[in-house]
Amino acid sequence: MRSSLPFLEAFLFLLGPAAGDVTTLSPEPSPRGSLPLTEFSPRFISGSSSSSRGSSSSGFGFSSGSGSVSQFSNFTGSKDDRGTCVCSVALPDTTFPVERVERLETTAHILSENIKTELSKVKEYVHLISIYEKRLSNLTVRVEVMEKDTISYTELDFELIKIEVREMEKLIIRLKSSFVGSSEIVDQLEVEIRNMTLLLENLETLDKNNVLTIRREIAILKNRLKECEAAKGEDVPATPPPPAPGTCAHGGVVNVSKPTIVQLNWRGFAYKYGAWGRDYSPQNPDNELYWVAPLNTDGRYLQYYRLYNTMDDLLLYVNARENQITYGQGSGIAVYNKNMYVNWHNTHSIAKVNLTTNKVAVTQILPDAAYNNRFSYAGVGWQDIDLAVDENGLWVIYSTEASTGNIVISKLNDTTLVVLNTWHTKQYKPSVSNAFMVCGVLYATRTLNTRTEEIFYYYDTNTGKEGRLNIVMHKMQEKLQSVNYHPFDQKLYVYNDGYLLNYDVIFGQQPH
Hints:
Layout (H helix, E strand, L loop, with lengths): L5 H10 L6 E3 L14 E2 L2 E3 L12 E2 L1 E3 L5 E3 L3 E5 L5 E5 L8 H81 L5 H23 L4 H20 L22 E4 L3 E5 L9 E5 L11 E5 L6 E8 L2 H6 L4 E16 L2 E6 L4 E6 L4 E7 L20 E5 L2 E6 L7 E7 L6 E10 L5 E5 L2 E9 L2 E9 L4 E10 L5 E7 L4 E6 L2 E9 L5
Parallel strand pairs: 2-4
Antiparallel strand pairs: 1-3, 5-6, 7-8, 9-28, 10-28, 11-12, 12-13, 13-14, 14-15, 15-16, 16-17, 18-19, 19-20, 20-21, 22-23, 23-24, 24-25, 26-27, 27-28
């Protein structure tokens, strides 16, 4: 029938039959020719489209070309005045979900685009990984080459430096022979060249990256040697030879050398306060027991110290004996005859510590001594009581309330720590940056600037005389936390903001 079921035809078209099939709606004749059409059976029928009129049918069936049939219920049908079949169908819940399919297609499209984007990223990452893999492989090869070549290159550099140093040694020998008597400048250069040789050996063992630093030092020494060679024809006043180690056959301190930077203290940059030196034993003066005692970072407590049997051990940080104490205060530390002398924490007492056992052997009150930053040195706290050693033994430098802060010097019995004798000076202790003793003479320093100190004052306990000096001391950092003199090697051991320095002491000629 033509256009009799428009809705069903549209619906069947949406379902999309198989290719070549034609959808037809055929009412089946009702039994016995009854007129009311109460049921229809829509079917998918393969073949040409046709329609027929008839009586009521039991239902509609949809038949595909394969012969399958889907039955629908819940529909009504009738015939109008013109004999046209009209039916009403209520589709079941199994209606094809067109909107859902559309949403699914949209989502699938979005996912497909996202996947394409991620795949492009993956391809890019794979490409980058291959590049980095090649770079890493090349870097590995280069590192292996550097590991092999660096040693030989560094060794070659050190060999060249050694040759230069040997040439300078030969030159200094020629210069000495050309002078009448002895020249102070040439002697000092000889000492510096010797120090350079030792430093070169140490650096070759410790750090092979300091070749450039050594080259700079060599260049400076070469220039100085050239200046000396140019001036060798001039008259140079002869200087007396240094006095025998451990004796006082000289005219006192007249100068000090430039500092030799030994190394940073073993605890690091943060430990700016402390002291170091070499043990002096009159019975065994050439004993090489070195000690390093950095204070805690508060600049007050002495908790750990180390002992080294040789300077090489100290330079290489090997074979150290590390000890701990809990009662040291300030950097006014001294070591004499294998005993360490310290200010007992929070008191005006002195403690004697046996370095062999790390046990306190003796404690003794220092009469009337001010303590706990009452009269410490300028810029250095907790050093009201400063112990010192010289050719004559053990000394203590301090102040009292009665002296109104002026320096007081006392000679101590190194066994019992009893005061043997006392001298009062006119020098105000808080205006002094540090002090040391040489042959019974107190030498005091003050700060000129961040790189220069001056030995400006002396007090001779042998004669009771005091006076002014003008001896310049160069330094590496701003503050001198401690200065210790060693009678045998005639050096000053200085703790300079965490760095260990030493100076050669130059003595004047003894008056006749």
